[in-house]
Amino acid sequence: MVRTFLTGALLAVVGALAVFLSEWLDLGLWSALFGAGIGAVLGLIPHRGPGWRLLAFLIGLVVAWLGYAIRASALPDSAAGRAIVVVAVIVVITVVCGLAGGRLPFWAGLLGACALTGAYESGYVAAPYNFLSESIGALSALLVPVALGFLVAVLTSATPDEELVVLGGVDKEPAPSGLAILSEGEKA
User: Fold this and answer.
1) DSSP 8-state code for residue 31
2) 63-90, pLDDT tens digit by residue?
3) Cβ count near 25 (within 10 Å)
4) Pick from 27, 57, 75, 77: CA 20 to 30 A from residue 182's CA?
5) Residue 26 carries which DSSP code?
6) How far apart are the first and last CA of the chain?
7) Helices in 45-130 by DSSP H: which ranges?
8) What's the pTM value of the predicted model, to 2 decimals?
9) Model confidence over 77-124: pLDDT tens digits?
């Protein structure tokens, strides 16, 4: 409970600081809550070390960015073109995370792809011909608050000894959401 309040308080301070720094330095961090919230989720969900989660997130982000590049340069702006990119992005993230043997969490890769989509889709739809400049701006505006939220969450989250063992083991304590993760031999 204390950790939740500490994380929330620090996240609120960092989010407000990001907004004011963006205003003072004209950084264009248009949605500190969006980015900091994504970073916090990435930092709070236990799965191996934070480096693996961050790597999977960045892979998802890059794959989604490449999807936009392909969409802007080679595909028609139609439902079929958008569907091809959606399928390709999900397939690539699935294959990369699957081949990593559980080290790269699939959910973190999807979170990275969804983060870029949330930060950039409306900008892309408004001006697909400005893909390169607009997408880089969206990435930088997204990554600063994501990094701040991730840092706060990792620094205030459980130590590795307190993390839940999700793959091939039994939890040391119940999951925070109230859902128990059962080992192979247990039944609900």
Assistant:
1) -
2) 999 999 999 999 888 899 999 999 999 9
3) 9
4) 57
5) T
6) 27
7) 50-74, 79-99, 106-126
8) 0.79
9) 889 999 999 999 999 999 999 999 989 999 999 999 999 999 999 889
